[in-house]
Amino acid sequence: MAAPSSPAPGVLASPGAWWDARLTRAGLRSPVARDALLAVTLAAVMLVGLVLTVALLPGEDLVRPAAAPWVVVVVVLQSLAVVLRRVQVVACVAVVVVCQVTLVALAPDASVRSLAPFVAGASAATVLPARSAARLVGAAAAAEAAGALLLADGLLAGGQHALSGVVVWGGSLLVGLHLATRRAHLALVRERADAAERERDARVHAAITAERAHLARELHDVAAHHLSGMVVQAAAVERLVGRDPDAARAGAAWLRDQGRETLDNLRQVVGLLRSDDRDGLGPLPGVDALEHLVRTAQALGDDVTLVRDDDATGLPPLADVSLYRVAQQALTNARQHAPGAPVRVRVARTAGAVLLDVENGPASTPVRGDDRGGTGLLAMRERAALVGGTLDAGPTADGGWRVHLRVPGTDGPSGPGGAA
């Protein structure tokens, strides 16, 4: 993967995400390279601190002049051991402890202590299992305390060094365990979010597949009705050939147009699944069935009104069915998400298209889980796309919801004697 993926919605980025992005841009991509930068930074900070301490307290003589160069060497070596914190954490802790005991021996009165012990202890808690990390850090604290008691000038100074070491190692262990727990929690949250997203994608895919199967069944029914009408019309043309050639030619032209339209519809069904759970003998609903749909909704207690232009007809059969189904789904959504709100259904014709608008007012009471982006909206979009139309859905200015469908249509009903 070329770039780190964005966290799933609702999942917080890890605390180091900001630094991770910037270190990557700086060319420090491997853990060892980043730990090397950390080690150099720790060494530089510690050396600057030593210089400032000596400069600000010139009369204290905290570090003997003969031991000063060795103190610098040990501090640098202790900081550089941090490079091993992820690849060899036990070795890292061991080197840090040895260096810390050496610093006690070189400067028993100075209490020289860098950040390396804290970093090593916290790293052990994030790399190793909790019990192993606790044993390792406990052993490091005990070793440092024993060395301090043996090498410091006097029991009191040794006790101070030992107590300081125990506090630093214990604190680093707690911080490391906290970081490890947080990382595990974030990983679990991301895993659950990814699983939820995969489940949602599976549901959406299943819904789309089911909708396509339903569309295929309806398209099969459209073709069956057309072919039945063509058979009847062909029989009429056969009888008119000798008696009325003009009428026969008109009937033949109608057969040609219907055959072309049926062929186009059948081409759309290629690739769509179909199960034989419907005999296809019943009439297919369309624009003309919207009045019955609205009356049914009103009988259920919905406040629905229908406004339909007289010339909003002449749709191809599949587009006619799709417009009806979109209106049906939109009314269902309005009933579910805004129960009791007034709903207005309008069907109008424009140049070369028929428009459907279903708009409901705001819900009188909040509805739990009011999310219009579910499979119902996906099904409506799928229907619109199948017939070459477009569908837009979204909230209105007053807090309601509007569904707008545009489907291409002919100029009006055609065919001698009506459509089959």
From TrEMBL:
Classification via InterPro entries: HATPase_C_sf, HATPase_dom, Sensor_HK_TwoCompSys, Sig_transdc_His_kin_sub3_dim/P
Alphabetized UniProt keyword annotations: ATP-binding, Kinase, Membrane, Nucleotide-binding, Phosphoprotein, Transferase, Transmembrane, Transmembrane helix, Two-component regulatory system
Positions of the Histidine kinase/HSP90-like ATPase domain: 322-408
Ranges where the Signal transduction histidine kinase subgroup 3 dimerisation and phosphoacceptor domain occurs: 211-277
Segments traversing the membrane: 36-55, 67-84, 89-108
CDD domains noted in UniProt: HATPase_UhpB-NarQ-NarX-like (cd16917)
Gene3D superfamilies in alphabetical order: 1.20.5.1930, Histidine kinase-like ATPase, C-terminal domain (3.30.565.10)
GO cellular component, one term: membrane
Catalytic activity from the UniProt record: ATP + protein L-histidine = ADP + protein N-phospho-L-histidine
GO terms, molecular function: ATP binding; phosphorelay sensor kinase activity; protein dimerization activity
The UniProt record lists the keyword Thylakoid: no
Entry EC no(s): 2.7.13.3
Keyword Lyase included in the entry's annotation: no
Pfam families associated with the record: HATPase_c (PF02518), HisKA_3 (PF07730)
Database matches in PANTHER family: NITRATE/NITRITE SENSOR PROTEIN NARX-RELATED, NITRATE_NITRITE SENSOR PROTEIN NARQ
Protein name: histidine kinase
Native source species: Cellulomonas oligotrophica
Organism phylogeny: Bacteria, Bacillati, Actinomycetota, Actinomycetes, Micrococcales
